[in-house]
Amino acid sequence: MEFGQGAVEKVVNAPGSWKGRRVFLTGHTGFKGGWLSLWLKRLGAEVTGYSLEAPTRPSLFELARVAEGLKSLIADIRDLPRLSREMAQAAPEVVFHMAAQPLVRQSYTDPVETYATNVLGTVHVLEAIRRTPSVRAAVVITTDKCYENREWAWGYREIDRLGGRDPYSNSKACAELVTQCFRDSFFAAGSGRQVAVASARAGNVIGGGDWAADRLIPDFARAIIEGRPVRIRHPEAVRPWQHVLDPLDGYLRLAERLLLDGQPWAQGWNFGPEDADARNVRWVLERCTRLWGEGARWESDAGNHPHEAGMLRLDISKARRELGWRPAWNIEQALEHTVAWYRAYAKGGEVRAMSLAQIEEHETAVKAMEQAT
C-alpha cells in the first residue's frame, strides 16, 4: 500500500493478530485503560499494566476484575527508574500510553500535577521505550482537546494547530509535541533505533464504568443511582461523543499498522464520531433520561465555572481513508450500551460479563460494517 494516496487496506482485529503478543499498557486502572485491557486479553495478548491505583471508587478496574489474567503493576510513570526497569522486564513489542491526569477542572485545581503527569510522564514513557530494545511500536493517547480551540463549526484535522487554554488541554498539546520530538530525534529512520510511534486523539468517550468527577455520563449515573437530579454546567456545549470501544478499535488498528509497515504510520490520528453525532449536552442528557426511565432527571447549574470550550468536533477523514476505520456505533447505540451498563450495575449485575459481552457486540458490528462496504 502506498501511504497517503487514499487507498484503504483493511486491518481487522482478528484474534490471531494479538495472540501471544506482548503489550505494555500505562493507565490500565483507568476507564479507557480498563476497557482496552479487557479487549487485549480477549484477543489473546500478554498484557503488563502499569498505573497508579484506580482513580475512583467504584471503578471499572475493580468492578470488572480487569487485573485478572494480566500482570498489574501499581506504580507511577513519574518514577523513571522503575518504569524503565518494569518495561525492560516485560519486553513488550507494543506500548499503549494512556496514563494521565484526564480532567479539565482538576487541571485548574492542580496544574503542577497535571503537567508533571501529562508532559514529563510522557517523556518518561518515551525514554523507557528508548531503553527497551524489544519495543517496535507505540501509541501515545492524548485527546481531541489538544487542538487550539477556535470554536469552529467544523472538525479539527491532524494538521491544525495544537494549543489549549486550560492546563489539561495545554498539557496534552505539549505531550503531542514531546511525542513528535522523540519520534524525530530518537526513533526515525537513520536515528539508529527505529520505533514506530504514533499519537491518537479521541473525542469525548462514554461507556460503562467511568466514575470520574465532572464528566457528564458519570455525573448522570451517580445522581440517578443516588436519587437526585444531575446538575449540568454547560447544556449547550457541543462535543464529539463516542462509545469508548470505537476509539479503542482505532488504537488497535493503528498499532497493527505500525507493526506491519512502521514509520509511514507514525503520525497523529483522530478517532472521533461521525459529524452527525457531535451533539450538545442537553440532547445527550434528554436521551439518557429517556433510556434510564424512572427517577432520571437533570437541571442546569448556573454558577460560576472555569472556562470550557463551547464547540468541539473532530475530522476523522484521515483515519477513514488511510486506516479503513470508522465508528461502528452511532450516538444512539453508544448511549444505549452505556446506560445499559450503568443500569446493570445499579441492579447488582455482573459487570465483567456485561463488559465482555459489549466488546463482543462491538466486534460483530465492526465485521458487519466491513462486510457491507
Kindly describe this structure.
There is one protein chain. Mean pLDDT is 90; it is low at 1-16. The chain has helices at 15-18, 31-42, 60-63, 80-90, 104-109, 111-130, 167-187, 216-225, 245-261, 281-292, 317-323, 331-346, 351-371; strands at 22-26, 46-51, 71-74, 94-97, 137-141, 196-202, 204-206, 230-232, 238-243, 268-271, 278-280, 298-300. Strand 1, helix 2 and strand 2 (46-51) form a beta-alpha-beta unit. 43% of the residues lie in helices and 14% in strands. It has a seven-stranded parallel sheet with strand order 3-2-1-4-5-6-10, sandwiched between helices. It has a three-stranded mixed sheet with strand order 7-9-11. Helix 4 (80-90) crosses helix 6 and helix 12 (331-346) runs antiparallel to helix 13. It has a single domain (15-301, 312-368), classed as Rossmann fold. The chain contains 13 helices and twelve strands. With 373 residues, it is an alpha/beta fold.
Task: For the structure shown, list the relevant keywords.
7-stranded parallel β-sheet; 3-stranded mixed β-sheet; Rossmann fold; 373 residues; alpha/beta; disordered N terminus
What's the SSE pattern? HEHEHEHEHHEHEEHEEHEEHEHHH
As residue ranges, the low-confidence spans are 1-16
Largest sheet: 7 strands, parallel
Number of domains: 1
The number of helical elements comes to 13
**Distance between the terminal alpha carbons, to the nearest Å?**
19 Å
CATH class: Alpha Beta
**CATH topology label:** Rossmann fold
Give the overall shape.
globular
The CATH superfamily title: NAD(P)-binding Rossmann-like Domain
Mean pLDDT: 90
Portion of residues in beta strands equals 5-15%
